[in-house]
Write a structure and sequence with these properties.
The protein has 275 residues and is mainly alpha-helical. The chain has one domain: Orthogonal Bundle (P1 Nuclease). Helices cover 53% and strands 4% of the residues.
């Protein structure tokens, strides 16, 4: 059983009942939807049936944006820390997670394990499991975004302003999918493209959440390599930087979707033959 129990009932009362019919669209909503569509294509039939029984309102793509939709409500602010983890440059994720003096339990790795456990608990209330499902889908994607495993001092790149052409944004927002937001019309079609592109590759899709977080941290040197532009007050991201970033983002989206499918299948159809 998890070390800490999340107050699901509090969230249900304050979020589900108050959520507007037209959801708020997060900036990186398309990225989360892409991950959901990839997972939808890879999970086995038993998983699809089980998830539909738990939450008949949102498929995997829609579930992925829910955790950002509800951040507008003050009653959910305590959940903000579940979206990321800050790890110092000179410390591995594994070592950080075993250092009780520095580690906090309200981080994305804690949330993934907590909500995986709750979703797998078939004795839990259906509404609780629906919440767990929506959060889990979102957080598996979040931990694959390099700056969601970030530096505390710059708030995962949120304090670093950059320019993309004539527009100003934060380094974090850029990596959340700034260019993806501009080029993707259909998240479903983009997910199909990523699935086809990686079908015959040897892209690593194994490991567990701490391994996924370490991979994100390992991209840190590339993320902060702004080149000569770094000397500017607000550096402009070069075409080369943006191309490199897009390649990384595409890989991480695919890995997130494949790993999400694997985690859900471990819960609902570990021994089943995939369809």
């Amino acid at each position: 059983m998890p070390v800490t129990t999340i107050n699901i009932r509090r969230l249900l009362c304050c979020c589900v009942l108050l959520l507007p019919t037209a959801p708020l669209q997060a900036f990186n909503g398309k990225a989360h939807r892409v991950v959901g569509h990839i997972a939808e294509a890879l999970v086995c039939a038993e998983t699809r049936i089980a998830l539909a029984a738990i939450d008949d309102e949102r498929d995997l793509a829609a579930a992925g944006v829910w955790a950002d939709d509800i951040r507008a409500y003050r009653h959910t602010r305590h959940a903000n820390r579940w979206h990321y983890i800050n790890v110092p440059d000179n410390v591995s994720v594994a070592d950080f997670m075993t250092d009780k003096r520095r580690r906090r339990d309200d981080n994305v790795l804690f949330a993934i394990e907590q909500f995986s456990w709750l979703l797998a608990n078939d004795e839990a209330d259906r509404l609780d499991r629906a919440m767990a499902y929506r959060y889990l889908v979102h957080f598996v994607a979040d931990v694959h975004q390099p700056l969601h495993v970030g530096r505390r001092e710059d708030q995962g790149g949120n304090r670093i302003s950059v320019r993309v052409g004539e527009r100003r944004t934060s380094l974090h927002s850029f990596w959340d999918g700034y260019d993806l937001q501009q080029i993707v019309d259909s998240p479903r079609d983009y997910a199909r493209y990523l699935l086809e592109h990686n079908a015959d590759s040897e892209v690593a899709i194994g490991g567990g959440p701490p391994d996924w977080a370490q991979e994100s941290k390992d991209y840190r040197a590339s993320v902060y390599d702004l080149g000569a532009a770094r000397s500017a007050a607000i550096p402009e991201l070069t075409p080369a930087y943006r191309e490199k970033a897009m390649n990384i983002i595409n890989l991480r989206l695919y890995q997130a979707g494949a790993r999400l499918a694997g985690r859900l299948d471990d819960i609902f159809c570990r021994d089943a033959v995939k369809h």
